[in-house]
Amino acid sequence: WSKTMSNTEPFIVNITGEDIANEDRLALIFQKKWKCTLKKEDFMHPIDFSCWRIAEPKTIIDEDGLEKVLNPKMELKAWAETRVRGHKFGDFPTIYLALKKFMFAKDVINNFGKPCFFIVEWSDGTIGFADLSKVDATADDFLHYQNVSKRNQKRDIGTVVEINIDDFSIIQHGYNGLS
User: Does pTM top 0.85 for this prediction?
Assistant: First the structure.
């Protein structure tokens, strides 16, 4: 999958079948945990998924004074960014998230009152999530510049936020350790 942003500076986005499978697998795990539906956002959206749940049916009084039950609709409950890491949980005390993703998450939280979660699976099968509304962005060493990309992609280079793994709620400890 490739997309060119301009004639002078191509912006290539390489999304592999493995990337999509990993996102879908993590989405299914969290759909069950949160009892919601995770819907994939478009590939240029800053965050991977929006999280939806069927609202409670509403009862109204119509113009004839009769009670009427309206069909429930889907309500947006949260946003979720997913990531699969190539190292074990605890190998590094922190994990990076692109600044633009973190800023989008904070905008959603502040403007719409909806939480945004960072869902991560490490190579040892540990899975956890961080509520980005609870991540402290005021520390002097919170921002970093990532100037290398293991995937050789320009979009991986830039300012990132560093999130402590202690900020994650772990729901699975390794491949056999569901919490």
Answer: no
The 10s digit of each residue's pLDDT in 8-19 is 555 455 678 888
Does residue 14 contact residue 153 with C-beta atoms inside 8 Å?
yes
Whole-angstrom distance, CA of residue 101 vs CA of residue 19: 17
Handedness of CA 24, 30, 36, 41 (dihedral sign): negative
Asked if 128 and 171 touch (Cβ cutoff 8 Å), the reply is: yes
Residue found by looking up tokens 């998230």 in the block: 97
Q: Phi/psi at 5 (nearest 5 deg)?
A: -90, -30
Three-state SS string over the chain comes to CCCCCCCCCCCCCCCCHHHHHHHHHHHHHHHHHHCCEEEECCCCCCCCEEEEEECCCEEEECCCCCEEEECCCEEEEEEEEEEECCCCCCCCCEEEEEHHHHHHHHHHHHHHCCCEEEEEECCCCCEEEEEHHHCCCCCCCCEEEECCCCCCCHHHCEEEEEEEHHHCEEEECCCCCEC
Model pLDDT for residues 116-139, shown as the tens digit of each residue: 999 999 999 999 999 999 988 887
CB-CB contact of 143 with 154 (8 Å):
no
